[in-house]
Amino acid sequence: MTDSPVRLRFEDDIAVLVIDNPPVNAGSRAVREALLDRLGDLVGSAATGVVIVGAGRTFVAGSDIREFGAPLEEPQLPAVIAAIEALPIPVVAAIHGAALGGGFELALGCDARVASADAVVGLPEVKLGMVPGAGGTQRLVRLVNVAKAIDLVCSGQHVPAPEALALGLIDVLADGDLLTAALAHARSLGTTKRRLGEAPVLSSSETDIAAAADKAMRRGRQRPNVVEAIPLLRDANSAPFATMLARERAAFQQLRSSDEAAALRHLFFAEREAGRVDGLAGVAPLPIHTVGVVGAGTMGAGIAVCLLNAGLTVRLIEQDEAALWRGIDRIEKTLAADVASGRCSTSQSASRRAALTGSIALADLRDCDLIIEAAFEDLAIKQDLFARLDAVARPDAVLATNTSYLDIAAIAAATQRPASVIGLHFFSPANVMKLLEVVRTPQTSDQALLTGLKLARQIGKIAVVSALGEGFIGNRIYSAYRRQCEFMVEEGATPQQVDAALEAFGFAMGPFAVSDLSGLDIAWKTRQRLAATRDPRERYVTIPDRLCEAGRLGRKAGAGWYRYDERGQRHVDPAVATLIEANSAVAVRRAFHAEEIQRRALAAIVNEAKLVLQDGVAQRAGDIDVALVHGYGFPAWEGGPLYWHARHDRQETVKALDEVERATGFGFRRAG
């Protein structure tokens, strides 16, 4: 038993099963088999109760996702849960760290759940294209009402232990040592079994169920897993428990084998690989406790909120008092909104606000471990700022720029510490978007790079490492995509047709709606910066410039590619059609079909993504997939552009790329 991933020991009359399968105690076949063996050892024993606990830093973080791409090996999780329920003595799950997916289903199969204050629980299977498959849906509706269960399952949210206690997902929040609390609770149950399958379903009104289902379908983009999950929860009372368990398992098995689930598994592993850099063994990142943010505009304020939410101390700097207080007001409003939405408590919000100080003096950054610049996107301004930061920052502090396009090596050259300069490219809104591009220059030290990656982990971002290059990974690819869409508009497509076609493919928003949201002036400034080096033989669409010159800078101006009403809703504007026709360099414009729009746009993305990989800007194909999904709205269920491309018909791809090459003309570079 010493080599087993599940150890059995006794604490007086209580048997303790310790799951020890590092690093996260994933519920692999070996763990399931060992659990069944140890539970079998307890049959007929003198134990009056059982506690299941995880070794290390977590309970069971989830099932072993690597197993989902092949036929599941016996014993499967439902058999383990059946053995727990068959024991005549109560079984208590002692949860610390994470109990997610199959880990939480294991806990739900126990008679009671005790958790430490830092634990999280949840059923995130929808994020992998599936539904819970070991009774998660059917046991959940016996702890929370059906409407709430729809929300929990279809969002896949992780529920912190205090909230889980309030909802009834756990029975006890441990005050002190977790195992001690779990042993005490097991003894308090006596010989009473509390099988959730024998409890009644907690019903909701039809109105509440319909509202929850409608919200889940909109949020889940009507994907097959959400479509399957809702009736499993809604109809839990319509058939015997065993029948509904079988129905759930069948849905799980069918979805597990789908192309969509395979794509989402690819992304799951790509996300975990993205923040890793080869050759850095033995290098340690610097500690990060206090972070400076220079610039309190929309981006700077959003970055500050990310840092505060992670428990870091923040020094916010602006040029003058008025700008500083506008930034602090933005932060306070965001923190208040988080309280109103239930994302944090009033006391947590107050603690975060207390960790923020503001100043108009750069010298107040002297105690910061890391400083992030979020100033105006102008090379000369950033170089001047970094020269001044270099003079006041601690010698070991890392200096980071949030630039979207500019040459970070040129920014670093303004300092005496280019090895300590990195790019930290956040995406707007910074406190919401998960992606963070960590950019290294040829001079960036390994320690500075690792410190940037450490910060990404601390603030809950998905990090992708990029080498230096115009637009880094994401914006370089997105620029090629947007240019191709602009070509099609010049040739006869309307902005709304292009947006509709790409949203139908699965993008969260079409490229012109995105441009309006982010502001047309951002790309305009980049075009102006590059104008002097642009070859006059290259195809150049002037329509976006004319929109900017007319003051149509996007939502913030009330007009861009679309017109916006006072509620921020977009509307087709005939003035845009007139402007396009007046400034189109194409003599005879033509009609477009959605299929052609999708074909050309996707070919442009894939070609540039291959070039980014070929040029060494990205480390691996999966990094590009992660960046485009989490930063640019590429549909996650397609796995990212390069994953999608690898599974697409090669001849169709070649034809589409031929179209892109003809449309682009001089200067087009085809990936090898």
In short:
With 672 residues, the protein is α/β, with parallel strands linked by helices. 47% of the residues lie in helices and 12% in strands.
Number of strands: 19
How many discrete domains?
3
Strand content: 5-15%
- By CATH, the superfamily of the largest domain comes out as 2-enoyl-CoA Hydratase, Chain A, domain 1
User: What is the CATH fold-level name of the largest domain?
Assistant: 2-enoyl-CoA Hydratase, Chain A, domain 1
Write down the overall mean pLDDT. Answer: 95
Alpha carbon gyration radius:
27 Å
**Sheet with the most strands?**
8 strands, mixed
Question: Which architecture of the largest domain would the CATH scheme give at its second level?
Answer: Alpha-Beta Complex
What share of residues is helical? 40-55%
User: What is the CA–CA distance across the termini?
Assistant: 54 Å
* Low-pLDDT segments: none
Widest sheet: strand order? 12-11-10-13-14-15-16-17
Structural features:
alpha/beta; 8-stranded mixed sheet; 12% strand; 2-enoyl-CoA Hydratase, Chain A, domain 1; N-(1-d-carboxylethyl)-l-norvaline Dehydrogenase, domain 2; 6-stranded mixed sheet; 672 residues; Rossmann fold; globular
Give a topology summary:
Elements: E1 6-11, E2 14-19, H1 29-42, E3 49-54, H2 77-86, E4 91-95, E5 98-100, H3 102-108, E6 112-115, E7 120-122, H4 136-140, H5 146-155, E8 159-160, H6 161-167, E9 172-173, H7 178-188, H8 206-219, H9 224-234, H10 241-256, H11 259-274, E10 290-294, H12 298-309, E11 313-317, H13 321-340, H14 346-354, E12 356-359, E13 370-373, H15 379-392, E14 398-401, H16 408-412, E15 421-426, E16 435-439, H17 446-458, E17 462-466, H18 474-491, H19 495-505, H20 511-518, H21 520-530, H22 543-549, E18 563-564, E19 570-571, H23 574-583, H24 594-614, H25 621-632, H26 641-646, H27 650-664
Parallel strand pairs: 2-3, 3-4, 4-6, 5-7, 6-9, 10-11, 10-13, 11-12, 13-14, 14-15, 16-17
Antiparallel strand pairs: 1-2, 7-8, 15-16, 18-19
Helix pairs in contact: 1-2, 5-8, 5-9, 8-9, 9-10, 11-25, 12-13, 13-14, 18-24, 19-24, 24-27
